Amino acid sequence: MLITGASRGIGAEIALNAAKQNYFVVVNYARNQIEANKVVEQIEATGGNAVAIQADCSKESDIVSLFKQIDAMGTLDAFVANAGIIGGQNPITKTTEHQLKELFDINVIGLILCTREAVKRMSTELGGKGGKIVLMSSVAARTGGIAQEIHYAASKAAVDGFCLGLAKEVGLQGIRVNAVRPGLIGTSIHDIHGGIDVITKWAAGVPVGRIGMPKEVAQTVVWLCSDDASYIHGTMIDVSGGR
Ligand code: NAP
Question: For residues 135 and 108, is the Cβ–Cβ distance under 8 A?
Fold first, then answer.
């Protein structure tokens, strides 16, 4: 299983959970080599197999190189497009082209290019053995998200649309594709909001009264990749405490 952005947060938990299900895990990261290596060490300490590979998943050349390195290791069974950023906090009147390009390069274009490389390898029409793809969306895709982060909501809405269309395109090619839409999950992505302590106070607006843990998202992602989810395809699953 390849997980983009697996050095920390939700991606790291997906890696740990997947290793427990006996996947050989590729822990992709952009900058945080030390954290990525820690995830690999944690997996190996419990008898699992993993490798950390650096690639900036907003750059096509890095993406192509990442998948080529995986080709040398074996068959890609599952791909989780998890890497993503919020892309700053500002009203629409202060939104810049540079900011939008940086955000969409990773959250949308990079996600689509990574998925292209995964489909090329998984598609039974192209000689592959099939596979499972999970795309990381957000509840922001359907709620519009937090004020002053509507660029982020728009990028995640693009992920949902891509998921729905891709499911139609590759359903007969042995590939199951779904998206997961987390709500407020306690990770460092919320440093921009003042950290986990601050978003914990927002939990009053969550029907179950608390923020979610990365492992609660990870469990859903790994389950979607399992045969227990064999007839689930083209769906967005909310992991949001009812938000
Ligand atoms: P996080 O804690 O900020 O971790 C982000 C991860 O993405 C890191 O591993 C980071 O790698 C990686 N990354 C960032 N830019 C990258 C790039 N250009 N290429 C490759 N990797 C890159 O975020 P998170 O909260 O776990 O979020 C993971 C996903 O869930 C994102 O798509 C996010 O939008 C989505 N999500 C999160 C929440 C939430 O409340 N946490 C809610 C809804 C959706 P480095 O460590 O190397 O920088």
Answer: no
Which atom of ligand 1 is least distant from the CA of 56?
19
Provide the 3-class DSSP secondary structure of residue 147: coil
CATH code of the domain in which 90 resides:
3.40.50.720
And the tokens for 206?
């969550």
Query: Quick check: is 23 catalytic?
Result: no
Distance CA 16, CA 136 (A): 17
Nearest of 225, 19, 15 to residue 131 by alpha carbon: 225
Model confidence pLDDT, tens digit, residues 137-177: 999 999 999 999 999 999 999 999 999 999 999 999 999 99
Torsions phi, psi for 54 (to 5 deg): -80, 135
Best residue among 61, 152, 189, 200 to mutate for probing ligand 1's pocket (most ligand atoms within 8 Å of CB) is 189
**Cα dist. 91→107, 137, 144, 193, 205 in Å?**
19, 22, 13, 15, 22
Pocket test of ligand 1: the residue of 2, 3, 10, 27 to mutate, having most ligand atoms within 8 Å of its CB, is 10
3-state SS assignment for residue 64: helix
Atom of ligand 1 nearest to the CA of 81: 32
CB atoms within 10 A of CB 194: 10
Note whether 222 and 17 are within 8 A (CB). Answer: yes
Q: Domains in the chain: how many in total?
A: 1
pLDDT (tens digit, 9 = 90+) per residue, 12-25?
999 999 999 999 99
Domain that holds residue 230: 2-239
